[in-house]
Fold this protein.
Amino acid sequence: MRRIGHRGAKGHVAENTIASFQKAFELGCDEVETDVWLTPEGRLVISHDAPPADAKLTLSEVLDFCRGKMAVNVELKAEASESRARDTGARVAAALRDEKDAYVSSFWWSALEAARNAVPPVRRAFLFSDAPEREALIQSARGLRLWALHPNRAYVTPELVRDAHAAGLRVNVWTVNDPAEATRLREWGVDGVMSDYPERVPKE
């Protein structure tokens, strides 16, 4: 099971900073999750919430730092705009075209579809925090040729993991900070766990 640092290692260091990603690396993460927005000026900046005008850290800087150290799960962010979500998906996919250890994830189907259309080989994962009908979810994921499902921890079941794997999908769960819960998810066959305290996630 992969140890995934949530926004770096936000339980220890300010989230979505190079220092946080460095801490995640020191804690043995296989990958980190981060959040990217497309600004009106066309920059791809790192921020969990809508970024301030003076946001400085960029996606390219994060990719440069993590390359050769850890994989990067790039969450595509947008605010109440399907067109902005699509633009973000396409732009980020283009930025990841030559990255072997980076992929995109999003709550926005439109962003994932745009990423596929822009650069088909880029891996894509659907984020969700509810309990969609399992068969419909799997069918939609297969139809969009997704690589993974990223459910909130509250909506993970052994059946979801089983059916996702049967459909060729990985399952990476967020956000798990209880070691006992992480161990249970490993027993269910979950592929990766995102945590604010990644050292609490068993890797074997």
